[in-house]
Amino acid sequence: MSHSACFSYCLGDRFDLDVLSPKLATIGQVQRLRDAFLVKMRQGECVVFHYGVLVCWGIEEDNALAICKELGPAVEGPIRATRDEISFAGNPQLDRLTIKHDHFQFPEDDPLHKLAVSHALAQSVKLEAFEEQVAATIKETSPIPETLASKGKIRLPRRKLAVLRGRLYLAKSQVNLHFDLLDKPDFFWDHPELDPYYNLTRANQELDSRLEILNKRLEVIGELLEILADEEHHKHSSFLEWIVIWLISSEILIFIFHDYLGWI
């Protein structure tokens, strides 16, 4: 039984479909199934998802990377590129998909079976991009709560605080806006018989537990946003208080110089 590789790539936030469609036509025979494009080539198959993910079956990685480069002009939105790999083979002695140590065995060579698995693999590699993005944001801003705990305040100018709040909010909103991509795809309404392929792969990729962890990390970002908002409000209030103090002091000085000393 020969084994082949399957590579999953998250190239960006999404694909521009107007640019993507003619690019895919130069690669192979294209069939659109809901929000996925199934591309059949001489060697292997590719499944392309509108949210910036490409899953390549039975294709050498050099060729898969060449396809990624070809689709580059259709990629929109900056995102940390991610990659994943599994192996697969056909085994006619089986009556269902089996997975062991990231090795997938299919009972038959059916493109729709691979497409069903591709949905979960694509969600996994997309989730990995979100995980890395959120982890990098938390790491970058980790000195803020540490400084607050040790010194009682954050020694940053208001503009810097506002920039940090914007970056944290952007990281949180980008994930929240794409959370629906991690739900069960509409494709399975048309093909309920393929549910077991998707569900088994989703469990293998631990999508549910990873989503729970990501939600907790997003809660950390939300709490940090509140801390920064309170600190920015405090700095603004302090600034206004000093203006009031300065105005009152000026009034007192003018009163003294004018009424008592007659200098003004």
UniProtKB/TrEMBL annotation:
Which residue windows are transmembrane per the record? none
InterPro entries associated with the record: DUF155, RMD1/Sad1-interacting
Specify the superkingdom: Bacteria
Domain spans labelled DUF155 = 47-215
Cross-referenced Pfam families, in alphabetical order? DUF155 (PF02582)
The UniProt entry, under PANTHER family, shows: REQUIRED FOR MEIOTIC NUCLEAR DIVISION PROTEIN 1 HOMOLOG
Name of the molecule in the record? Putative Rmd1/YagE family protein
